[in-house]
Amino acid sequence: MIQYSDRNQKEFQERIQAVMREKGIDGLILTEFGAIYYATGHYSTFQKVTNVPGYCIAVCPVEGEFTVIMPDYETMSMEQVPGCKIDVSTTGIFIDDHEKITGKPAPKVRPSTVDGSRTFRQALDIIKARKKDAIIGIQSKLLTYDAMKIFQENRGSCTYIDCDEVLSRARMIKTKWEIEVLRTAAQMSERQMTATANALKEGMTVGELVNLAYQNCFAQGAGVTGARPVLSVGGRYFGNFEIPPEDTLRKGDIVRMDCGPFYLGYISDICRAYSIGRASDEAKRIYAALMEGYRRELEMIGPGVKIADVYNEVMQIVRKTVPDYVRGHLGHSIGTYFLAEEYPYISPYVGEETFQPGMVVSCEVPYSSAVIGGMTPEDSIVITEDGYDRFTYVPEEIVEIGV
């Protein structure tokens, strides 16, 4: 199985810096958990949990090593990540005698919690030391008002631009390590869905279903860094996965299972449909149409193929059976972004974008009905030089449990 220690930081740094040079950017200041992990290999649990910009920051100059600004509590984990510098920030979470690691005396005064103004200034100082009038990419769409205010107050002669496009371009083509991590994550997700489905039965509570799905995610073994099983039951959808409704599974319900475990910080995103007992004829009819479109989607995909063309043709196929079928996309890239979907989308809005070798894509034909339920054929694939390599295989029909 692929290991974290197999990750090559140099590959990620070179990929990001190549896009920065192309776009004329002197440095990036990354504040979102997934972007920090992607760029540096540092998995900041505190940044992930708090979701407060500034707790951990990645500073990425266009030349030279990247720097991670982090609380001293996290610095020991950086021993696993060669190729990055460490700059310690002062927070309310710390380790005594830390000077034995950093060589610097520990601060005598500590704030009650993270001091965002300090870490943002540290990040800016690193880039300004290289170029006073630097063009700096920031994740402006994800920054708080207070964070943006600190950036503006300390900009000097620097210019800020949003770095979403830089990250999207860099992340779009995966390294060999990333491909194997995502393959493992997808296959873990498939196993946990099968294990969960085998225990489905009429009368099971939704709470029991959710709990079982989480258990089966973490049962996939070492390297599982989190889980997000997205579930729907019949026509009942719920976003509060941790506090499910007080409801039970009924005969004929379609149970939709989506996503699953995170492996080494990378998401899994496949989807399966199961029926408690026999599925209705209408559900089978619609699923058959989705699968017809899905098969055509996979037939079309390959290097150099226009992404929008795939979307348009699949939509026409599904609409022969489901005339009102409307979806914004039929798949997307995946990686470290915590909300799952990364650019590019299989949609009509990507211009002349084509599939390229090294892209990892979750291909899907989504369907969600408040009457029939959710049914989405979805697998993950990697685009190769002559086609694609499939990580998982969705069933051709709704899987009927207990029949």
From TrEMBL:
Keyword rRNA-binding: no
Annotated InterPro entries: Creatin/AminoP/Spt16_N (IPR029149), Creatinase/aminopeptidase-like (IPR036005), Creatinase_N (IPR000587), Pept_M24 (IPR000994), Peptidase_M24B (IPR050659)
Domain Creatinase N-terminal span(s) in chain numbering: 14-173
Gene3D superfamilies per the UniProt record, alphabetical: Creatinase/methionine aminopeptidase superfamily, Creatinase/prolidase N-terminal domain
Taxonomic superkingdom: Bacteria
CDD domains assigned: APP_MetAP (cd01066)
Coiled-coil regions listed: none
Pfam families, sorted: Creatinase_N, Peptidase_M24
The entry's keywords: Aminopeptidase, Hydrolase, Protease
Ranges where the Peptidase M24 domain occurs: 181-385
GO molecular function, one term: aminopeptidase activity
Protein name: Aminopeptidase P family protein
Organism: Mediterraneibacter hominis
